[in-house]
Write a structure and sequence with these properties.
Helices cover 25% and strands 17% of the residues. It is of the alpha+beta class and 353 residues long. Among the domains are: 71 residues, Roll (Ubiquitin-like (UB roll)); 58 residues, ADC-like domains (N-terminal domain of TfIIb, Single Sheet), CATH 2.20.25; 71 residues, no CATH class.
């Protein structure tokens, strides 16, 4: 087939959008997530196909041999700009969404900037969406004034997680994303995996914990790592500002998770900077109290204790359990200490469960 004058190969079952993406022909979209079944709701991905009168949605139209496609004609680009102007006219905060809100939260804002759309300049009218700020769950802000009814959140919850915790009710300007019976997310089937937050292209669903750092000084840095909480090995991007962890985002290209995380991998990071976290080692005294000491003294005391147990009871008397909250390097050192130091396999990790 031919895309923008370039002859390309394709596989059976591929859509025009998939072929265009591979050929680096930038086709915009707001309702598309490569992990989900194509939906064709936003119509931004329309392209011209030779022999077809009207533009077609490239995400739902399969490629066929000898097809000739144009992705960037003046008519198509004008169509896309008009659609974006209409979307922006009913969206409250299109230019004020912090990137901490979620992985895809900048998609609408980026497209408005790309097409030089000024919200409210041509179209003004009723705004859709009713925010649910009363939902007191600690993880997800449901700011539906920014919702554009792309249904990515509903579809990822159903197709990827199988939870069906949220759905769509009503039609037109009364369309609303809702949990069953209008309840809070805590009273629904939601497992707080955060998938809906990370796929939302407008920030209508926001990571409450990450957005707390919006006013903190410093630039947002992303560091690729692996979640330590279980043995699956989900890839994550750790968000930091200066020396503080402010959020976690799933890696969409993670080989074992492909953008998925559980509630712990997504939200359980407050312990890193918790004020109750120990910053110096403690040694238990004879009366049961704990004394704060320097590291050299603590390590000497620990080494003496290990030697004493080994001499009295043998190698098999020591069993190591590593923590899922410790760095991977600590887990490696722990198993090396037991396997090499004691010659046993008496080592486990709380993450294995």
């Amino acid at each position: 087939m031919t895309i923008d004058g370039q002859i390309v190969d394709f596989a059976d079952g591929e859509t025009i959008y998939q072929v265009a993406e591979r050929c680096r022909s930038e086709v915009p979209t707001l309702c598309y997530d490569p992990r989900l079944e194509a939906f064709g709701a936003c119509r931004l991905c329309v392209v011209e196909v030779e022999g077809i009168k009207n533009p077609v949605a490239s995400c739902t139209t399969q490629a066929v041999p000898e097809m000739v496609v144009k992705t960037k004609t003046d008519e198509v680009e004008k169509h896309r700009k008009t659609l974006l102007e209409l979307v922006a006219s009913e969206n409250r905060n299109v230019g004020d969404i912090d990137q901490l809100a979620g992985y895809a939260s900048q998609e609408l804002g980026d497209l408005l900037e790309r097409y030089r759309v000024e919200p409210g300049r041509r179209f003004q009218g009723k705004q859709s969406g009713t925010s649910n700020h009363d939902d007191e769950n600690p993880f997800i802000l449901r700011d539906y004034d920014n919702c554009i009814s792309c249904y990515r959140c509903v579809r990822v919850c159903a197709e990827q997680e199988g939870d069906y915790a949220i759905s769509v009710m009503n039609r037109g300007f009364d369309t609303q994303i809702t949990a069953e019976f209008g309840n809070d997310l805590r009273d629904s089937q939601c497992t707080f995996c955060g998938q809906c937050v990370q796929t939302c292209p407008t920030g209508a669903l926001t990571d409450k914990k990450a957005i707390r750092a919006k006013e903190m000084p410093g630039e947002i840095q992303k560091t690729r790592s692996v979640c330590p909480y279980c043995g699956v090995g989900c890839s994550v991007d750790i968000l930091t500002k200066e020396d503080r962890v402010v959020g976690i985002q799933p890696a969409m290209d993670g080989p074992s998770n492909l953008g998925a995380l559980c509630i712990k991998g997504q939200f359980a990071f407050d312990f890193v900077h918790h004020p109750d976290r120990l910053t110096k080692p403690l040694i238990k005294q004879a009366d049961g109290s704990f004394k704060e000491v320097e590291w050299d003294e603590a390590l000497d005391a620990a080494a003496a204790g290990f030697v004493k147990v080994k001499e009295k009871y043998g190698d098999h008397a020591t069993y190591g359990i590593a923590s899922g909250r410790a760095p991977h390097e600590a887990a490696y050192s722990m198993q090396k200490f037991i396997r090499a130091g004691y010659g046993t396999n008496y080592i486990d990790n709380c993450s294995r469960a």
